[in-house]
Amino acid sequence: MQDMQQHYNYLLVGLSYVVAVLGSFTALQFALGIPLARTPGQRWGSILAAGTAMGGGAIWAMHFVAMLACSMGAQATYDVVLTAISVLLAVVVSSLGLAIAGSLVFRWSNLLAAGTVMGLGVAGMHYLGMAAMLMSTQVTYDMRLVALSVVIAIVASMAALWLAFNLRGRLQMLGSALVMGIAVCGMHYTGMAAATFNQGGTLPAGFEQGVRGDHLGGVIAIIVMAMLVLALGISIVRQYRRSVLSI
Q1: pLDDT by residue (tens digit) across 97-139?
Q2: Separation CA 228–CA 25 (nearest Å)
Q3: I need a labelling partner for 108 at 20 to 30 A (CA). Which of 50, 69, 75, 207 fits?
Q4: Which of 232, 219, 207 is nearest to 135 (CA)?
Q5: How far is the C-alpha of 97 from the C-alpha of 157, rounded, in Å?
């Protein structure tokens, strides 16, 4: 079988990083409310809001835009069920990681656990998203690069979480989001480098029913960024009201 070369639209590659950073920044803004919550309801509300922004925006949306940026010389669609599960996985593990890291008392063991959970979630979402691809190719992986991609996700997730809950200020939060963006993108593109696509013969079952996305990269990025900017605005307003009430 003949190997197929990956070619990238670098505008969409850059856009995927912007989505990852914006999603991370929004999630970390929501995460500020986790240790400040006065009731379990407020705490879990902040956790779920942050986890949704991180998992749905920074991780899943980034992955989808990045996949659309990659051309492998074969038409592809996406299995609806696996794609939906990948979104759910990203949101759940992000929420769990933030819940662990956002405890009232900082512990290195919590940071290690949270970074591991979130990093494994980023990696799991990526490879599940890859499995959702329906195309006339066979995919094989270089397991050394797969392992490296997982390590990148875990280490960078730990760094971003530490910055999020131990530093204050807009610039520090932006730095944390930039690190998390590197974690998500670094993991994704390392994972893509680990994959070899071999020319196949027939289209898989369910190809025609799969979600198509040849020209959706820019549209998805714009919609996601608009939603995240709205969420970020709400978060900033809430923090301002809290600061006024505390005076």
Answers
A1: 888 887 766 678 888 998 898 888 888 888 998 888 877 777 8
A2: 9
A3: 50
A4: 207
A5: 9
